């Protein structure tokens, strides 16, 4: 099958730093090529792939590559011109490609990678409700259930977790919070729970510019506690070491996250998850087996105290079996085949 994969241009594929969508696009593209498909990847310069690469911008936009809307519009316009070359077009750009209407000469399907609860997003989705969509979790659809959108499937993310991460022994005697230090990730809540449980916690992550004040007022004062170790912003090797050595990975999310890549990455090191029972998390882990999903602060403290009882090998086995590139690619192949058959 001739497939176009269309990535955002903010970061290369795969990303050199942050970029969850780009990581998934890379894993999917590599697996589709491996499975014998003829794949063209539309992505920023600096991308690396076994597919045919079309660099749609001369540099990743996060490096100061110019006007983001203009570059993405140019990417979509080229896609329209070349659409007859493909059996199916798979967009990871959310809404923008739909503005080209019926100009495509191949079926187009869009994976929605972000949150759908913003009022302006709801309005746009209502205007374009006939376009085929793929959700990354069943929970992602809930805010827009009343719009009756054209959902064709849910396909969970997949990464080569078996080779990207090794099984850690959790012997560090601490909990780990490794994530962006933003209110929606709950860093202050995690630190306070660890302190109340009398347990050491290692805190690491980046502080986005809009959240500097939150970090200074809500998080930084807690770092003075002797049970808290501040590790700063870590590279991938550092993250893996900290998470693999932890008894539990605690990120008590304060929003309905559509898919938490960080949680499956933690489980791939064998480290059980402690978080809030909301968003996609009940779809990603089995409560009491791969971690604890709780509903209040008291339960969070209790979870910290008993997380080391869980089987680390089972945590790793679960995510490698369930969230791998092969399973993800098979899910998308079924979507592509359905759309191609419908368009014939």
Explain this structure.
The chain has 344 residues and is an alpha/beta fold. The chain folds into two domains: 2-160 and 324-343, Glycogen Phosphorylase B (Rossmann fold, 3-Layer(aba) Sandwich), CATH 3.40.50; 163-322, Rossmann fold (3-Layer(aba) Sandwich), CATH 3.40.50. 36% of the residues lie in helices and 17% in strands. The protein is built from twelve helices and 13 strands. The chain has helices at residues 20-34, 68-82, 119-127, 161-164, 187-197, 212-219, 236-244, 261-268, 281-284, 297-306, 312-322, 325-343, and strands at 2-6, 38-44, 52-57, 88-91, 108-112, 133-135, 151-154, 174-178, 200-204, 228-232, 248-250, 273-276, 291-294. The strands form two sheets. A seven-stranded parallel sheet has the order 3-2-1-4-5-6-7. Helix 1 (20-34) crosses helix 12 (325-343), helix 5 (187-197) crosses helix 10 (297-306) and helix 8 crosses helix 11 (312-322). The longest helix is centred in the C-terminal third of the chain and has 19 residues, at 325-343. The chain is globular and about 60 Å long. The model has no long low-confidence stretch (mean pLDDT 95).
What is the name of the CATH class of the largest domain? Alpha Beta
- Mean pLDDT level: 95
Q: How much strand content do the residues show?
A: 15-25%
Q: Termini separation (Å)?
A: 14 Å
Helices and strands: which structural class? alpha/beta
- CATH fold field value of the largest domain: Rossmann fold
Spatial strand order of the main sheet:
3-2-1-4-5-6-7
Our count of helices gives 12
Q: What's the number of domains? A: 2
CATH superfamily of the largest domain: Glycogen Phosphorylase B
Largest sheet: 7 strands, parallel
Low-confidence stretches: none
CATH-level-2 architecture of the largest domain: 3-Layer(aba) Sandwich
